[in-house]
Amino acid sequence: MSPQFPLSRRVFLGGVSALAATAVTPPMAAAASPASGGGEVRLHWLDGRPAAPVGCAFGVPWPRGTLSRNVPLALHTGDGGEVPLQSWPLAYWPDGSVKWTGHAVTSAATADTFALAPGTPAPPPVPVTVRRSPREIVVANGTIELRLATTGAVALPSLSRAGRVVARDGELVLRLQDQPDDADDTRAPRREDWTGIVERAEVEQAGPVRAVVKLTGRYRRDRGRGTRAILPWTLRVYLGAGDESLRVVHSFRWDADENHDFVRGLGLRFAVPLTDEPHNRHVRFGTAAGGVWGEPVRVLTGLRRDPGAAVRKAQTDGTATPPVAQWGQQVRDGYQNLALWNDFTLFQESARHFAVWKRTSAAGSWLKHAGHGDRASGFGYVGGPAGGLGFGLRDFWQRAPRSLDVRGAATDTASVTLWSYSPLAPAMDLRTYDTVAHGLDLSYEDVQEGFATPQGMVRSTELRLWALAATPPRDTIAALSATLTAPPQLVADPGTYHAAGVFGRWSLPDRSTPARAALEDGIAREIGFYAEQVDEREWYGFWHYGDVMHTYDADRHEWRYDVGGYAWDNAELGTDALLWYAFLRSGDPRTFRLAHAMTQHVSEVDTHHSGRFAGLGSRHAVVHWGDGAKEARVGESFTKRFSYYLTADELLGELIRSSMQVDETLRTVDPLREVLPPQTKAPARVRIGPDWYALVSNWLTEWERTGDARWRDRIVTGMRDIATFPAGLFTGEAGGAVGFDPATGHLVNLEKGDFDGGYNLSMAFLGEQILWEALDLVDVPEFRRTYLDFARYAQAPSAEKIARYGRDFNPGLFKTIYSRVTAWAGEQLGDASLRKRGWDQFTSDPAGKPWPPAERVTGSAVAGPVTEIPTRTTTNPAGDFATFATNDFAQRNLATIALLAIAPEEAP
């Protein structure tokens, strides 16, 4: 914690300090809001009340000056009941007041609505406790106890309920092979099993409502052969007071050799002790539609002879059968000769199909037709009346291929493996898709030697483990499955987020005129189109889920999945931000899920977190990390903050902080190396936009998270430097090239191409929002004037530019992208004509018009029916031939949302 903001986390975590007076609410926060009534924030479940009780974490914003750093917070149900709550600060305003708080509730939070307000939080009946010794950390909550190792190959030594061990010997497993399955080599791939070795353990939260323990390590070969250690990983374990389940988040960072290391399996394995008779042991798998596949280890139904109705019912219900003496005589005498089904597998091979396999032993064949369906929920169970282990993977079918394995169910100890990447699928191949370049001019593909690498990419998997007292009823399994399909999430109303003054300038929906209603309908319709495209085009998979495609090929009736830079979008031009703004305005659950998956994807898969490109991300490409344009704006913090602050997710917070490595990376990776000759005036070279804007968003986020004024000062330093440039924000070749010193944050005018920088995308990647928010937090009058000058004349007619600068110039702007900058100048200057100019630029741009309703394409033109937007052939200023593209979708709707906030009176 910064000395500037010396708040002890204990104040929030324990919540026992006295209330302090709050400051006067500033004008923006004083607008009508659910949050302004006595400091109370109303909360509700995103998808309605959870189907089954599980805990969750969430974030809440506070208007500037309204929540002092030493004020504890309490949570009540809608009817006034107390709810145990754990709180901690996530971000601060410049005056030191709290901007965002993070919170955790347990499975006891079962009401429909809640109210968060200053007050002493209710303690849980039995708090969660954490005990640490040199060899292990023990987390307990009165219901279950978990032991975690501080070092070694067994990460989770045991999980117990009421003193009975439900699972033990939990270890991270990796299966690796040395070539792809279809290599030209005549020999079979050589496979090896690796184990995740714990190297460090850290207690991040110690109760009383929730405990969080973080383990870190690397994978090493089994049996200790060799010294190589790869794929650094983290494992966070969350346990709430009174919960019977725990949340586990595993992530790994790629640092292996993609040309020789091919992942064949990645998972978490446990041993599960079993004591019930085989006919009372049950295996269960859930489906996303609420169904359950469930069978016992020894099947007593469907026999030639009837064991009795009570026996059959117990087998289907998962309860203990009556004593053997009460069975039908012929079954009673011969049941021990029946098959014992020892091994079970649920394999989700694609987003459209799963199969259940079972077998008696490795000496026999699998029955691969034991069950099948389209989408499994990722929930599994093995156990009996004496108890068992429930286990599950979030985004199970969306991140296929995945599988759940139960081995040894007929023995005293079963082995359960949750495969986040299934060994039944082809080996993971992270090489780029081709070995030659295909031309930037035609395929929009920027290929550079050594740049198409996954080094430093991250992928995470969320798991949940239930220590259950007995085999759960089928309806309970369906409910537990629902918590994996759509994990419960507490959120506030749109008005609360808007009144808090967070995330720059955005509007609440406005349907006051037919034209404005049409704009609002366009936003909703187009988001719905993308949600349907994700499913129709199956944009799923371990590495793909969360991304969408960039541009459509109307002739093939297919997105350009194989055309250079037109394939995966990688959140180009703010697709992720658009989805988050749309959620903040609407509260729509589907939009939240789309946005959350995209942020997870971009922050993990599209951003390098170590190696040569640390802090940079990859531009849109056929392979997510395949493009040679490594950009600071892909990994920038601004677009990741939405998800981080709304969900208080620790891993995402780490990844956001990891992006700050980009300052030093820019010393060796010049974003303009292919465009301009080297320069010697500064240690590095960046474009004011989008590079410096991305750095500003990183510094701003770290400043508000820590209160450390060093990061604010870097923003101020750059702003003051830009204010001295003769051309201000029109400075620089290739869209704003300037010198940059990573050590100090200073910018240097390279004195080339002022005003005539050409193709200008400086604001295309949320640059305007980053600067609006920064200027709201720091007072740099000279930069505000410089920015206003740019905004005032960026889309001005020639006569106005000549009158101001003594010359005419064309900054090469996109009308929709810069319309909100122009309108902002009008707002700041009180000039209605400028505000109207912004709207006129937007409404006169073909890219600014909502798409017509989608149409179905059927017949022999396609392999199967598809949905697409009717063709609207355009040629943009870059000379690109296009039909419809995600860039237009993102920028058009971002413009609508911002313009309605900045110039509402001039809206259509």
CATH class of the domain at 126-298 and 338-424 and 458-489: Mainly Beta
Shape: globular
The helical percent reads 25-40%
Q: Tell me the major beta sheet.
A: 20 strands, antiparallel
Class by SSE composition = alpha+beta
Looking at the overall shape, the CATH architecture of the domain at 126-298 and 338-424 and 458-489 is: Distorted Sandwich
Strand residue percentage:
25-35%
CATH topology of the domain at 126-298 and 338-424 and 458-489: Beta-galactosidase, Chain A, domain 5
What's the Cα radius of gyration?
29 Å
Terminal CA distance reads: 48 Å
Unreliable runs: 1-38
Q: Give the number of DSSP strands.
A: 39
In round numbers, the mean pLDDT is: 92
Oligomer: single chain
List the total number of helices.
20
What is the topology?
Elements: H1 9-14, E1 41-45, E2 56-61, E3 73-77, E4 82-83, E5 86-92, E6 98-105, E7 113-118, E8 129-132, E9 136-140, E10 144-149, E11 156-161, E12 164-177, E13 191-206, E14 210-221, E15 229-240, E16 245-253, E17 262-273, E18 282-287, E19 292-296, H2 309-317, H3 329-334, E20 343-350, E21 353-359, E22 367-373, E23 376-384, E24 387-393, E25 402-407, E26 413-421, H4 440-443, E27 458-468, H5 474-485, E28 490-492, H6 494-499, H7 514-536, E29 552-553, E30 558-559, H8 575-586, H9 589-604, E31 617-618, E32 630-631, H10 638-647, H11 650-658, H12 662-665, E33 684-687, H13 688-706, H14 709-724, E34 737-740, E35 747-748, H15 767-777, H16 781-793, H17 798-805, H18 815-829, H19 832-843, E36 855-857, E37 866-868, E38 874-875, E39 881-882, H20 886-902
Antiparallel strand pairs: 1-7, 1-28, 2-6, 3-4, 3-7, 5-6, 8-9, 9-10, 10-11, 11-12, 12-13, 12-17, 13-14, 14-15, 15-16, 16-27, 17-26, 18-19, 18-23, 20-21, 20-25, 21-22, 23-24, 24-27, 25-26, 29-30, 31-32, 33-34, 34-35, 36-37, 38-39
Helix pairs in contact: 8-9, 8-20, 10-11, 13-14, 13-15, 14-16, 16-18, 18-19, 18-20, 19-20
